[in-house]
């Protein structure tokens, strides 16, 4: 393993944003309200406003006495995010938002509307330290971790946007900027609030929440032991260590076999099928023998508890790589399925506005 590799797991030491109501668990909310000299039930009122009514400005919380709204705003609802730019495509069904935090850090989230569901793809870090060469986010480097509240504000804003359209947010995917398991404690806290029933959380089903990772094996096992039963998405991208060492540099620390062992542990503990993400790159990882090896390794490690999501590579600035031709893609799918592993091609959204997988770069 390269001596410099561990550095990519640690965000630069920057001051985190001010404490926000969404950062707090139930006990901390009660303590914060008590510190302000307010009765305990105000904490539940605030939670109902934020997680159920999707309101983050105390000035709009009409069930609170007017005299305490400014006090609560200053103490528990400081401004966190400002939308710098919003871009739409797919006839308005896909919307990318560029957010700016209080320290001028920028990151992105993407809201996607489908006939049967509404999904928001959220960021867990500003930038990413995993350095995957085919991903624009990874090539930009890591700026800092996001706070729990900054993560949850992306969810709340998406839910509020949908509510204006008489729709409801149904799915959350941690597939935006960053490696979620490299910001473990804050992502875990955010997931707990996402799946908690109102008024303590957004009330999204755990089965409708997906946490993606490039393969931080110990953190995968740790997440399994939390028994939250969210969906795990493993970004594999190559079935052999020789290629994956290059495509996913974290493989220099945790090899394919170790990552698949961790994925199997997750599946065994949670009973949930693991999604294997595989960006198909022309003449790089799309060879028939790699499809055979992928199917063989997944069948041996996970059996029916694996599903391969093939992702046609999305173009990124300056990259010489592109997506595999459709006949190659179809043959890859056929060979993986022939090994007894479920495999489908992902319906890519937002490519033309750089909102698709691997394209988020938060450029102002």
UniProtKB/TrEMBL annotation:
Entry EC number(s): 2.1.1.192
UniProt keyword annotations, A-Z: Methyltransferase, Transferase
Protein name (Swiss-Prot/TrEMBL): 23S rRNA (Adenine(2503)-C(2))-methyltransferase RlmN
Gene: rlmN
């Amino acid at each position: 393993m390269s001596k410099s590799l561990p550095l990519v797991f640690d965000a630069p030491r920057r001051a985190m944003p001010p404490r926000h109501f969404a950062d707090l668990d139930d006990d901390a909310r009660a303590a914060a309200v008590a510190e302000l000299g307010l009765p305990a039930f105000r904490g539940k009122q605030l939670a109902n406003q934020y997680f159920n009514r999707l309101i983050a400005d105390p000035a709009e919380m009409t069930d609170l006495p007017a005299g305490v709204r400014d006090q609560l705003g200053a103490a528990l609802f400081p401004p966190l995010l400002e939308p710098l730019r919003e871009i739409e495509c797919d006839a308005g069904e896909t919307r990318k938002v560029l957010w700016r935090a209080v320290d001028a850090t920028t990151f992105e989230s993407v809201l996607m509307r489908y006939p049967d569901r509404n999904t928001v793809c959220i960021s867990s870090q500003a930038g990413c330290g995993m350095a995957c060469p085919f991903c624009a986010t990874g090539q930009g480097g890591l700026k800092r971790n996001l706070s729990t509240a900054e993560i949850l504000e992306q969810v709340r804003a998406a839910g509020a946007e949908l509510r204006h359209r008489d729709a409801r947010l149904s799915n959350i995917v941690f597939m935006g900027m960053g490696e979620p398991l490299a910001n473990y404690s804050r992502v875990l806290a955010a997931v707990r609030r996402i799946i908690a029933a109102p008024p303590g959380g957004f009330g999204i089903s755990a089965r409708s929440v997906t946490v993606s990772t490039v393969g931080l094996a110990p953190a995968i096992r740790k997440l399994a032991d939390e028994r939250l039963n969210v969906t795990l998405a493993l970004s594999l991208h190559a079935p052999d260590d020789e290629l994956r060492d290059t495509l996913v540099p974290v493989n220099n620390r945790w090899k394919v076999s170790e990552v698949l062992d961790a994925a199997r542990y997750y599946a065994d503990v949670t009973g949930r099928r693991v999604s294997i993400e595989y960006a198909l790159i022309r003449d790089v990882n799309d060879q028939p023998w790699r499809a055979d090896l992928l199917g063989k390794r997944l069948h041996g490690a996970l059996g029916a508890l694996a599903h391969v999501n093939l992702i046609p590579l999305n173009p990124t600035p300056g990259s010489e790589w592109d997506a595999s031709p459709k006949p190659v893609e179809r043959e890859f799918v056929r060979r993986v399925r022939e090994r007894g592993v479920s495999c489908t091609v992902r319906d890519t959204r937002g490519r033309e506005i750089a909102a698709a997988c691997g394209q988020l770069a938060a450029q102002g």
